[in-house]
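Consider the tokenized backbone below.
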């Protein structure tokens, strides 16, 4: 969409010089809903303004796979989308089936639909179009029944069991009927409801085909019914419900004309509520446990400072010796590992909110933990493996990889906003794997001295990386303590380079000559 009329027109709404900021709402029907969704995603990604755009679609096909859904969740964009879906409309449900299975009938049907909608025509389609639509319906129905035969407990578990469509829903879905509307924003619940409501058609009869046409092009009538129901109010479904929660589910099922006794639909909605409650409970418990974890972090910060001030060495080099003074630090290291491993396990099992990894509180808590404690994990690894292993390839715990990914995702999506440059060295080296790179550099330098010239390029790149870290102030001052592992490497590397060329010089050499 770069350098297009669309971008130029949108610029008039995003001009910061305007006294009154105009709201931006993208609206689309059918394939136009997909276009509106993509335009909204583009505007959100470009961050053209402080006030986010909003998107409303009617009868839109699914847009994007699980990676797009994860991005929307991570960026908290879900609230910017509202997708209206009518009871009999096949278009929002057609991509439940793998695309290659519906491509042929879809190619036949969509051009006709576009003409009908453009001309606001009520003409009955000819037999060829009806047959194509019937074929499309049958394929989708057959697929949804196949999924149902495997069970609806978790659609994620069907991956690899049957061939599934890659398309997934995101945002809020409003399921509509002549009885009212019901909304949900849980992606898996939406997917289940799309499957279940598709099965309200027992077969692709002529009436079903006609309903498919009329409802896809008749969302004005659907919204009229919904508006009337919201004003008049509806009767209480299932008055014998034992709780207001159950009564709410009954009303939702009634609103989409789905039947209060549909067990699968009831269970899907109940599970959505139960999962949300469980997620909230788990986060609350973790927030309490985080307080204790932060106490252990504070003790390790004190340990770091004590090593530097009392012993004149880095806490990394001290811990690698495994002396008595390091026992308490090791206990706290293990406790923190258990705490964060539990969080990663809950996240992988979907026991935490889907946007958990996008919350600043947990991103910064996790990355601060890695920057302080991963050096101790590295020291422990090289102490126990006696120099025979490679931490980066074989020893790095999953938790540190996960926190690094969360931070990289956050920095990538916020890079356009700009960040203030550091003016002094960091209190903690920003690359939590720095000491592992030092250990590997020491081994590579030993190999180079034995004539393995292939190590030279890697060592020069490591030196350049350290130079960049110093210039960006992303390295901590303790690295340059006289007896640190890094300074041991630097002394040997400098000696080797001087022996190769007496006139050798480099940016890092100059920096160290003047004092880091």
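A designed sequence for it:
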């Amino acid at each position: 969409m770069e350098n297009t009329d669309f971008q130029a027109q949108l610029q008039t709404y995003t001009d910061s010089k305007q006294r009154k900021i105009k709201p931006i709402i993208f609206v689309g029907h059918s394939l136009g809903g997909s276009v509106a969704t993509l335009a909204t995603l583009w505007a959100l990604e470009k961050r053209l303004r402080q006030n986010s755009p909003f998107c409303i679609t009617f009868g839109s096909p699914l847009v994007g796979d699980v990676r797009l859904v994860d991005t929307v969740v991570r960026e908290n964009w879900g609230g910017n989308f509202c997708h209206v879906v009518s009871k009999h409309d096949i278009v929002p449900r057609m991509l439940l089936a793998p695309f290659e299975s519906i491509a042929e009938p879809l190619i036949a049907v969509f051009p006709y639909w576009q003409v009908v909608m453009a001309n606001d025509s009520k003409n009955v389609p000819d037999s060829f179009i009806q047959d194509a639509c019937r074929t499309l319906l049958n394929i989708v129905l057959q697929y949804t029944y196949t999924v149902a035969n495997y069970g609806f407990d978790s659609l994620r578990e069907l991956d690899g069991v049957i061939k599934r469509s890659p398309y997934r829903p995101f945002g809020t879905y409003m399921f509509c009927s002549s009885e009212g509307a019901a909304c949900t924003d849980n992606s898996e619940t939406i997917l289940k409801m799309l499957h279940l409501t598709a099965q309200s058609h027992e077969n692709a009869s002529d009436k079903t085909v006609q309903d498919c046409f009329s409802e896809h092009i008749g969302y004005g009538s659907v919204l009229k019914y919904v508006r009337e129901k919201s004003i008049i109010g509806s009767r209480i479904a299932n008055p014998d419900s034992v709780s207001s929660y159950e009564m709410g589910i009954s009303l939702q099922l009634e609103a989409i004309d789905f039947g209060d006794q549909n067990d699968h639909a009831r269970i899907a909605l109940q599970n959505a509520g139960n999962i949300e409650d469980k997620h909230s409970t788990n986060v609350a418990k973790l927030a309490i446990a985080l307080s204790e974890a932060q106490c252990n972090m504070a003790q390790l910060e004190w340990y770091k400072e004590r090593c530097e001030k009392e012993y004149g060495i880095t806490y990394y080099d001290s811990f690698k010796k495994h002396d008595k003074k390091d026992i308490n630090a090791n206990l706290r290291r293990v406790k923190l590992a258990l705490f964060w491993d539990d969080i990663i396990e809950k996240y992988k099992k979907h026991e935490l909110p889907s946007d958990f990894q996008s919350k600043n509180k947990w991103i910064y808590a996790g990355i601060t933990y890695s920057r302080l404690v991963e050096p101790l994990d590295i020291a422990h690894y090289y102490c126990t493996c006696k120099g025979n292993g490679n931490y980066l390839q074989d020893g790095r715990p999953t938790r540190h990889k996960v926190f690094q990914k969360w931070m990289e995702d956050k920095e990538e999506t916020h890079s356009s906003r700009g960040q203030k440059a550091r003016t002094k060295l960091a209190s903690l080296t920003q690359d939590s794997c720095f000491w592992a790179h030092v250990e590997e550099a020491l081994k590579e330098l030993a190999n180079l001295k034995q004539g393995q010239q292939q190590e030279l390029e890697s060592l020069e790149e490591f030196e350049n990386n350290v130079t960049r870290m110093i210039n960006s102030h992303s390295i901590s001052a303790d690295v340059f303590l006289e007896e640190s592992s890094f300074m041991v490497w630097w002394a040997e590397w400098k000696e080797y380079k001087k022996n190769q060329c007496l006139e050798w010089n480099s940016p890092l050499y100059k920096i160290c000559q003047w004092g880091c």
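Confidence is low (pLDDT under 50) at residues 231-247.
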